[in-house]
Specification:
There is one protein chain. By secondary structure, the protein is of the alpha/beta class. It has one domain: Vaccinia Virus protein VP39 (Rossmann fold). Helices cover about 35% and strands about 25% of the residues. It has seven helices and seven strands. Strands 3-2-1-4-5-7-6 form a seven-stranded mixed beta sheet, with helices on both faces. The longest helix is centred in the middle third of the chain and has 14 residues. The model has no long low-confidence stretch (mean pLDDT about 90).
Amino acid sequence: MAFERADFDRLFTANDDPWQMRSSAYELRKRELTLAALPPGRFASAYEPGCANGELSAALAARCDALLVTDGSQHAVRLAAERVQEQRHVQVRQAWLPAQWPEGGFDLIVLSELGYFLSAAELDRLGGLILGALKTGGTLLACHWRHPIEHGEMDGDEVHRRLHCMGLPCVGSWTETDFRIDVWCDQARTPAQQEGLA
């Protein structure tokens, strides 16, 4: 595997916002589009692996009754816990994936900027864990940078291609030069269909 836990610990030790998630206009817009791409309504249980310093976690928390977020870096976990400390329905844990995938099922799983830090074999294993953890009618959202990742085995497009191969129906996609978002659901009914409009 190209990336180790120590790599991310070094990142967050040197800078508590290494990807400028708090200050970058790009990150803010990407986060807003990620939230907008989710199906309407609330999620009873959600999971965000690779939460970094918790900026997306804090936004997701407003849509979830229970939210679990994890990161492999102990420094990132500390920062994320501080970011969501007033949101009691959010749990923050350290976990290195795919080996430490959590038990239980989820109505929503959000993979944001995580897939290309894994090897292709690890991502495929993660895909199987996702399929096993998604509850009936559950949603998977993935959002990834589309430019090359230094030392990465895959880019964002390859990550999403492999996720498509899991066989879940895709209910929405947004692709632009810098990043892409895809949403899958095992019961592919649009909001209009759910309301009997289509």
